[in-house]
Specification:
- The structure is a single chain.
- The chain is mainly alpha-helical.
- It has a domain of 87 residues: Orthogonal Bundle (Arc Repressor Mutant, subunit A), CATH 1.10.10.10.
- 58% of the residues lie in helices and 11% in strands.
- The protein is built from 6 helices and 3 strands; from the N terminus they run H-H-E-H-H-E-E-H-H.
- A 3-stranded antiparallel beta sheet has the order 1-3-2.
- Helix 1 runs antiparallel to helix 4.
- The chain is elongated.
């Protein structure tokens, strides 16, 4: 009696690292066609055929755009019978938002430090010295 070898499970997709997530997502969304595909998914999960409808590119091209969005953790797919439904991946958007927030938090911290700093008197003192000269 022979037993079929069990195929090892596909490795789980690694959790996105924050520093790369933002850059990968921005790169993925930099293409106008890819951004249009992504925006179509705002209305809910859709198959490639629905996403390709009305697009200036072929259905296989839309599939390639979806692959790039998946690699950037912005889109996920789910099998529904013989078709695949694509949806926006909330965790990818959250990582992108955290990436943007890093810059916003840094800017706010610099602003707060500047606003709370005591006023500088150097210019006023320098101006008084010029008047005496």
């Amino acid at each position: 009696m022979t037993y079929a070898k069990k195929r090892p499970a596909a490795p789980a997709r690694p959790a996105p690292r924050l520093a790369h997530c933002g850059a990968d997502a921005l790169a993925a969304l930099s293409d106008p066609t890819r951004r249009a595909v992504f925006e179509k998914l705002r209305h809910g999960p859709q198959p490639v055929s629905a996403l390709a409808r009305g697009m200036p590119v072929s259905r296989p091209a839309v599939s390639q755009h979806l692959k790039i969005l998946k690699d950037a953790h912005l889109v996920s797919e789910q099998r529904d019978g013989t078709r695949r439904l694509y949806r926006i991946e909330a965790s990818g958007l959250e990582a992108l938002r955290r990436w943007f927030d890093m810059f916003w938090d840094d800017a706010l911290a610099r602003f707060a430090a500047h606003a709370e700093a005591p006023p500088k008197r150097e210019k006023a003192v320098a101006m008084k010295g010029k008047d005496r000269g």
